[in-house]
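In pairs, describe these two lines:
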Amino acid sequence: MSEVFNKSVAATKRELTFIYEMLFCDELSFYAQTLEDLTPYPWSVLFNPAATAPDLYEVIDNSDDNSRVKLLAYNKLLQGHHPVLRREILAVIVEVGLQKGQDTLACYRDGTARYINHTGKIVFWDSVNPHSKELTDRIFDESEKMIAHLGPWEYGRLNPPKPGFARITLMASNGLYFGEAEADTLFSDALAAPALQAATAFLGYITTKITK
């Protein structure tokens, strides 16, 4: 597939915060600010306050090629206190706190990604190729091994990690799972390291392929 939609752009602090919040797909209002028309499917369902659990599961089942839409639908189910019996990881988000900000990489099951660099640059990776998908699949394969040893986080999403700390968040259909520690400790942790190493390899690849 073509990579013409993969690019790096500079952003203001406000834009960085907005993009960061959108990475987690747990707040529909952010998407309302970016869409010109909320009436096409699946947005007509996601923004419908009367949407039922079957309506949302239909969106999930029809959105295999869009992990963020699936996450939005699952999160709306969770926010409506509907049971979610499936467990599928749809996003892996790695954050590293630095003295001058933070680096954040969000990888989605469909192969797309976002990378926010502490310098104010954002990489949008939307056009997947076979090699990038292979790297993404490795991230999720390792994350599946990791999630088997974790329990879901039952509270709200945390603030970004402090300088010197790192966090890996697994955004699953039934909630979020994460590990956090000092960066050196987390990147050498037997459970988290394989997924983090896979994410590092993916980041190294996409930053050499973007259109600047």
